[in-house]
Design a protein that fits this description.
- By secondary structure, this protein is α/β, with parallel strands linked by helices.
- The chain has a 7-stranded mixed β-sheet with strand order 7-6-5-8-9-11-10, with helices on both faces. The protein has a 4-stranded antiparallel β-sheet with strand order 1-2-4-3.
- A hairpin with a 2-residue loop joins β3 and β4.
- It is globular, with a radius of gyration of 17 Å.
- It starts with 19 loop residues before the first strand and ends with a strand.
- It binds S-adenosylmethionine (SAM).
- The site of S-adenosylmethionine has 19 residues, from α2.
């Protein structure tokens, strides 16, 4: 699938046929995604009815992707039917919103290494959403993911490990389409507590450039997450 359309292409407006919206509730502008499982709230988020549709408010303090969009992420490389590889799925907070956005024709391969956390991901989220494929494995061993087929359009990585950039690059080499997008969350304290967080993010971005990625945007995530950044890049040279 060619994936060069984005959920929104300018400032803050989403295309009307996408499963993501800005919804103003009590005077506050919130992100929201069309609930794939009406009636089900995944992490206590508010459900909002608009005509016959139900939307789930997307909390930027609970999801770094929502925080990044609020901080001005230029493009969300997601559309109905996108295939996503998500490293560090945890209990499925962000995964569930991506699952809403890509809809039933899309797929989210959700990798989580902790068996306990993975059980929650399966019981609370993946078992109710047929477009999520849970993979309880270590992202350092991409050869062990047996359920991924074909290449994905987006790789999202949020594993908070010191070697996370190398892990993300290795997974992109195996599973991301040429020209595909990666969103890499950097928890600077996991990489080097002594260094200036901005410097840590710059160094990780340079490592990506050295490995064939084109950097499009670098964001810091305050006030939603302290000492975190997000790098938005595309995979240009395998
Ligand atoms: C910061 S949390 C992710 C939060 C999640 N992305 C969200 O927005 O809902 C990091 C997760 O990565 C997982 N993780 C850490 N190292 C990993 C690895 N090597 N492979 C897969 N998952 C890993 C942790 O168990 C944890 O659940």
């Amino acid at each position: 699938m060619s994936e060069k359309t984005f959920a929104y292409s300018n400032s803050n407006d989403f295309s009307p046929d996408l499963f993501i919206k800005w919804i103003t509730v009590d005077g506050e502008r919130n992100l929201a995604t069309l609930n794939l499982v009406p009636g089900d709230s995944v992490y206590g988020e508010k459900l909002v009815k608009i005509d016959k549709d139900e939307y789930r408010l997307w909390d930027p303090f609970r999801s770094k992707l929502a925080g990044s969009i609020k901080k001005g992420l230029k493009n969300i490389p997601l559309k109905i039917g996108s295939k996503v590889l998500y490293l560090g799925a945890s209990t499925g907070t962000t995964v569930s919103h991506i699952s809403d956005i890509v809809g039933n024709n899309g797929l989210v391969f959700a990798v989580e290494s902790s068996v306990r956390v993975g059980r929650e991901l399966i019981e609370n989220v993946a078992s109710k959403r047929s477009n999520i494929v849970p993979i309880i494995e270590d992202a350092r061993k991409p050869n062990s993911y047996f359920s991924i087929f074909g290449r994905v359009n987006l790789l999202y990585c949020d594993i908070a490990q010191q070697d996370q950039t190398d892990i993300a690059i290795e997974n992109c080499r195996m599973f991301l389409e040429d020209g595909g997008t990666m969103l890499l969350v950097i928890k600077t304290r996991s990489i080097d507590v002594t260094k200036d967080p901005k410097k840590v993010i710059e160094e990780e971005a340079q490592r990506l450039k050295d490995n064939g990625f084109k950097i499009h945007q670098i964001l810091t995530l305050e006030p939603f997450d302290k000492d975190h950044g997000l790098i938005y890049c595309t995979f240009e040279n395998r």
